[in-house]
Amino acid sequence: MKTFGGQVALVTGAGRGIGRAIARGFAREGAKVAANDVTPVNLETVVAELRAEGGEAEAFVADVANRLAVETMVEAVLERFGRLDILVNNAGVEPHAPLLDLDEYDWDRTMAVNLKGPFLLTQTVGRRMAEAGGGVIVNIASIAGRAHGLKDRAAYVASKTGLIGFTREAARELAAYNIRVNAVCPGVIETEMTAALRQDEAMMARWLSDIPQGRLGSTDDVVPLVLFLSSPQAAYIHGQAINIDGGKVMS
Fold this sequence. Notes:
Blueprint: E1 8-11, H1 17-28, E2 32-37, H2 43-52, E3 57-61, H3 67-81, E4 86-89, H4 104-132, E5 135-140, H5 154-174, E6 179-186, H6 195-198, H7 201-209, H8 219-230, E7 241-244
Parallel strand pairs: 1-2, 1-4, 2-3, 4-5, 5-6, 6-7
Helix pairs in contact: 1-2, 1-8, 3-4, 4-5
């Protein structure tokens, strides 16, 4: 029997990269997948892929930083599937600019998507999970929110640091409702978000010199941890932020 047979997982930012891989992982393990992104571009292709592989999936276009859009989406997911067992807050943006040149709009949008979005979804979905007797929430943070910052990413670092703190406090409060909350903190992962920087040989050399395992991560490294944390096997893991970075940050 597949791990998540009969369950429903909502994955935000599922149109590409880590989100796409997580959605595929859940579908392969039997979950019905509600795949979200801010635009249908790529998202419809992802849903088609999941269905072609035998999974049950539906696309839900919504801006996670907008309360009305989030509430409307959650209602639509429940209407379509009848339940919602797992939430993965993965949607994120990462503007690149030195602090002294960072545009206020980019700061605000990063906080809105990377931090306000998980708050809105955790609150909205958490209420439904509480009524249903429990659930699981996994936030995709970053080692940038731990002891390792990133040059020219002040907004991103601040948002991911905040997301880790939010994970702890959400876990503290939601445990009373049988809702488990954890965070996954990837290092540098080979996705579309890092594609341009990976073309810079000097940048790659710096990255690899600081990773004990000597390689960048792939989505195949991240997905199993997310699935594990969402499964009954992780029933006593709660309020944690787990690094997955080849040893770059050890804590």
